Amino acid sequence: MPKPYLLQDVFNxxxxxxxxxxxxxxxxxxxxxxDQTESSSITELSKxxxxxxxxxxxxxxxxxxxxxxxxYGKIESTGGRKASMYGLVADACYFLGxxxxxxxxxxxxxxxxxxxxTQKNRIPYKxxxxxxxxxxxxxxxxxxxxxxxxxxDKILSIGINLSGRIKNTTGYSFSFFHFQEEPLSSVIQDKIxxxxxIENDSRAMAFGEFCFGEVNxxxxxxxxxxxYGIGLGILIDSEVYYxxxxxxxxxxxxxxxxNEIICHCGKKGCLETEASGTAVIRKFxxxxxxGSTSLLIKKNKTVExxxxxxxxxxxxxxDVLCIELxxxxxEKLGKGLAALINIFNPELIILGGTLSETGDFLRLPTxxxxxxYSLSLVNTDTELKLSKLGEKAGILGACLIARxxxxxxx
Length: 410
What we know:
The structure is a single chain. By secondary structure, the chain is an alpha/beta fold. It folds into 3 domains: 87 residues, Arc Repressor Mutant, subunit A, CATH 1.10.10.10; 127 residues, 2-Layer Sandwich (Nucleotidyltransferase, domain 5), CATH 3.30.420.40; 172 residues, Nucleotidyltransferase, domain 5 (2-Layer Sandwich). Helix content is 43%, strand content 20%. The protein contains 15 helices and 14 strands. The strands form 4 sheets. Strands 5-4-3-6-9 form a 5-stranded mixed sheet. The protein has a 5-stranded mixed sheet with strand order 12-11-10-13-14, with helices on one face. A two-stranded antiparallel ribbon has the order 1-2. The longest helix has 25 residues. The two termini are 28 Å apart. The relative contact order is 0.12.
């Protein structure tokens, strides 16, 4: 069994230089190649890394001693001799993903072979820009780690998804928990004791969907996160697009509507004011106030206590008012997406987030509006699908981002 310090040392470049730093970079390249191929021979690795067979053999032997790769056995080679194949050890190390929603948290653990081994969904939580909310977040993560059947030092990194403006390269959040001068990622890392990265929630969900969901051969994809707000993840030529400052994807704050509704960003007329979960709740309350009926009210729920989950469940149980509201929201969302289609000409648009759980009640009016408002020659090549991963998208995205950061070669 490898010693814990060896495990951490393989991935830590901070105190390395010269040959040691180069060897660590080569080991990470081996990991990344095995990600793509599942298993590989010494000869294939040598060719891929453009180094000698003896050097490759030495690196592979070190990684076997460190418990990170293993000999998968021999297969027939083109030269007639059987070649040993090497691959990653699934339980050698792990990566934690934390997906923060407005009223709950989802957490999952990914092994070295990118398999989700455990997850815990809908842990009660209220996201607020307060020290108390940050403290509770840290306690939830610590509690999850404590319950795991593995040693804490096997978790190499944590990825945390948070809504709003996130500078993922520095770990700063400009929307939540910006009480200290140091980056939020560093604050959480100091409390938990594991390398921590933060990412915008919509972009992380998009990354999870791009890697494990509906994306197959498509290279240009838009992922729309429809929750209490609206976010966007963009894939261009198979690469996640961040923009110059890392703030791309603020789709919900495009000023589409001429209304007097103030968005939470402080401006008026944003897409979110008419086509988000928050808009659905507001419209529901207005309809009830003006005499409309709903199964939710008949269940002795007060109008003030109605949340997005209630409305989604009611729509899926064929509540007419909730279905009508989703149709209205879908039409306005489709109008916004039509503009994106005219700009990006994507192969695929994926609807994800909480509201996508209503299925065709949202997708069909959205598709109809896209056809109505976008250029037909452009939208003909654009498929519109619902998220395949659902709640898993954010967890997987967070885990993968945490893993990729650790395995990145300087």
